[in-house]
Design a protein that fits this description.
With 386 residues, the protein is an alpha/beta fold. It contains ten helices and 16 strands.
Amino acid sequence: MNMTKKILYGLVCRTFAMAAIVLAVVVSCTKANPYEGLSLVLSGVPENMTAGESSQVFVSFSDAGAPAAAATYKWMSLNPTVVSVTSEGDKASLKALKGGRAVILVYLAECEQVSARASVEVAHEGDGVLRILAIGNSFSQDAVEQYLYELFSNDGQEVIIGNLYIGGCDLQKHFNNINADKAAYEYRKIVKGQKTNRKNVSISETLADENWDYVSLQQASGLSGKYETCSPYLPEILNYVRSRSRSDVKMIWHSTWAYSRTSDHADFPKYGNDQMTMYAAISDVAKKVMDNPAYSFDLLVPSGTAVQNGRTSSLGDTFNRDGYHLETTFGRYTAACAWYEAISGKNAEDNGYAPSSVNADKRRIARSAAHNAVQNPYSVTDMSGF
């Protein structure tokens, strides 16, 4: 990673908790560099802006004094779709474009480590649209790409749904992709019921694409019951997402499902090839993640418990199509109902939408399984009467 990328990533990860705090960075360049020991200060940066508003900002050297040589300033916005920057020497004009948060960065061309930054919040315009982004893999594909839009639409709620997809992607890979700003994802997006799919998209690009109300994270299925594989990466991923999202973004932990009893998935032996052992491990991870104040997740979507509830019904262990991915009709519908109820706060049993491929009995089981999961996310509800 080159020096500029290192600086940008470090700055982003350290500004997520600030509304509009201006910091000066003092670091050494080489001994022969005339900028050694100097620091920059930003002034005139507004804490809050509204879309369409402009503001003039300035940069100067701190009390340490200016260098003997003339300096060249480099300006940029780390979220240019929210705030744009037009610069001329030691001053710049900020233009608020849409709701969200942007970090403004200025540094010396002659010594990139001498820099300053500020975080600016742009008020959101209330368009009534709910925006949900999943950063996941094929299990988020199963959960949000089918039926979730229709559940909200049936409720009169317009929604935009995004899924950043890499098959089998785990948290470590998401972390590495963030670190390298790697355009490695398929970006599946549903707007007004129509799905598009763009390839070679980065997390940073997707976060800037919409003012997401909810952003979800999840672990790869085979590691979903292994807490030690989550804790090294979650803090930095959360910090990064929050730093590039609206200040009131809600972070979701998506707790996924255990494999079918006869699954031949290569990771099933991690759980003794036992479905309930795997489910219990996944639920334990979900509880630890949700209870950890260092993460401060806002919401749990217990798709895994919804599926496990459904398995106790007359449908039995039929919720998977290949031993691990969800069956494409009532299986996916069950997960979508769990997402709908967890986010909306409304009972999925009262939502009248169901895909035509799911008959009345399966609809009732799926909705009830999801409702009971949201009410009791860490334990299985017996549905043997269904």
